[in-house]
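Still learning. Show one?

>
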Amino acid sequence: MKRRLLLSLALASLPLLASAQQLTVSAAASLTDAFKEIAPRFEAARPGATLRFNFAASGVLLQQIAQGAPVDVFASADQETMNRGADQKLIAANTRRDFAANSLVLISPVQGAPAVAALADLNRPDVKRIAVGKVASVPVGRYTQQALESAQLWGALGPKLVFADNVRQVLDYVSRGEVEAGFVYRTDAELLKDKVRIGMTVGGHAPVTYPAAVVADSKQAALARDFVAFLGGAEAQAILARYGFGKP
């Protein structure tokens, strides 16, 4: 009798086990806080679904996917990295969707550093170190390079540049006063308003837009499509807006 009861309980649990789905989302570091808040909303709307995040520089994430990392959704901080993913057939191109926008800002530490309010200020001798993202793998680094090239400052500022692995590392360098200035997204700067000041919104670069797409080798393609669609919905958009992201 006891054995029959245990068997019945085991069989009853099979539908629950079968319905449990884990979705792995590789997302740009600047999306960390917003996506962590979006996760429980999506999970509540999709019973049995669990989101697992991997946050890093967009270029690093794409390289991981190319090397076979088991990822279902890729969310990039720029179009260029997603274009590379499409060219390599790493994403399902027909699932690609822009879901957010941002802006590039120049920041400096609140304490212990000179206020930097214009790109020309970066040439001053009291500005010794400037944190930027690595151009090859970090979208904010490419936006920064474009902006400084537009201002004809990229070459001149070369000796001062300190390259970071992602935008949050740039923010850390500035907030700790390890550099006199840095370039991050407005959403990142807003997270540490007590430690960094925004000197200016920077122009002269490609629009900062965030695309998401289902990874071609996803084992949860239907659920992955649902998550990409969810990012464009009212609930996720309200969360993104609260963190300072704009509409694409």
